[in-house]
Amino acid sequence: MYKIQDLKKYDYFKDIDINYALDSLTGVLTRTNILGFANYLVENNVEFMMGILDIDNFKLVNDNYGHKIGDGCLQQIGEGLANYVGNEGLVGRFGGDEFIVIWLKGTSYDDVHAYLDKMYTKADIIRKKVTVMNVSFYVTATIGCASFPKDAKTYDELFLTVDKALYRGKTKGRNCYIIYVENKHKNIEVNLREQYTLTNMFLRISEIADNKIISKDDKIKNIMDFISSALQVSEAATLFKDKRAIFSGDGYDCEIDEECLKIFEDLTKDNPIFVYSCFYKSTNQKLLNFVKEKHIVTFIVSKIIVSNEIFGYIVLFEDKITRIWQERESALLLYLNRIVELLYK
Q1: Among 11, 170, 273, 299, which residue is least crowded by beta carbons within 10 Å?
Q2: Range 123-129 average pLDDT
Q3: pLDDT value at position 177?
Q4: Which residues are within 8 A (CB) of 111 and not within 5 positions of it... i.e. 6 or more apart?
């Protein structure tokens, strides 16, 4: 990918052997060299932005199509990133499905925002269909980034801030870019990632459901509040067929009527869980009108069965980002269905 002339213009690579500088699969810099370059920039007090890009759910590509297809995907993403960065910085493979982007042309929030927004919306690098050996699939990615010396004074501090931003992007549902902002992200504890494992969430939900003091509806309200916080979703709600709705926080002010319930009934007719996002091509005009009216970007819904009848629905909404719903969210909804069934049976 990179040629010797692409690297020689940077003093760090003046004595580099191109054969050892590049990742053998993708042709971008190796982990050692991209990190070494970042450290060199810090030592020489050069302003730059550093981002880590993580391809979303890449394991599923390897599992579903094989490692050869996965390798082809990595090659295409690496090439696209290198071409996008061009002579304004460098790209390296951090490892596995992660790439590091170093951009030397701007460190202000507005500059970085515009740069990444173009990468996501117009540059045809990610959020796109990738075709490898006649196999096509949609690829999204999550980026966390920070700038030196604006956000950190040392290389180690910079790496930590980038990691916090990337972690925040993953907890928001992936398929997004997060620019480190101190007052928003400073207190993120990356080493506490296991706090909201599926097992821990199951235990917490059970504790709430077993509370003997509060009412059933209050239990559901507390569970929805917990889910909204743990998953960092815009809203979590339980919609009952008797036209009651229990939201976390202030709620979407979603009007629960027969039409609304009919939409969810149709969506979950053949499967217990349905996922809607802007990638989902629907001809269901009622559904399209619903998400437009409620300003919903994506949601995941599951039906609640009590005594062999539909009792209601559990819905997780996003109103700002196109979240990539994970397997744990589906498992969580199925578990919540059982909890509601036991509470109201």
Answers
A1: 11
A2: 89
A3: 94
A4: 105
- CA angle, residues 66, 324, 115, in degrees to nearest 5: 95
Amino acid at 219: K
Residues 209-254 have pLDDT tens digits of 998 888 999 899 889 988 887 887 888 889 998 888 888 875 566 6
* Rounded-to-integer distance, Cα 295 and Cα 290, Å: 8
Exposure of 4 in the CB half-sphere (CA atoms within 13 A): 7
What are the strands of the beta sheet with 177-179, ordered from one edge?
89-95, 98-103, 48-55, 141-148, 177-179
Let me know: does 160 contact 180? Beta carbons within 8 Å.
no
Distance, in Å, from the CA atom of 321 to the CA atom of 301, rounded to the nearest integer, reads 17
Considering just the CA atoms, what is the radius of gyration of the chain in Å? 23
Residue the block writes with tokens 């398929």: 175
Token digits of residue 133: 């050996």
Rounded alpha-carbon distances, angstroms, from residue 34 to 13, 44, 195, 285, 287: 11, 15, 31, 49, 46
CA dist., res. 51 & res. 215, Å (int): 47
What 3-state DSSP class applies to 240?
A: strand
What's at 217, amino acid-wise? D
Pairing type for strands 298-306 and 273-276 reads: antiparallel
For the sheet with 235-240, list strands across it.
245-247, 235-240, 309-318, 298-306, 273-276
DSSP single-letter state for residue 191: G
Distance CA 303, CA 290 (A): 18
pTM, full prediction: 0.72
Closest listed residue to residue 28, CA positions, set 43, 7, 59: 7
Domains (ranges, CATH) in the chain?
4-192 (3.30.70.270), 197-344 (3.30.450.40)
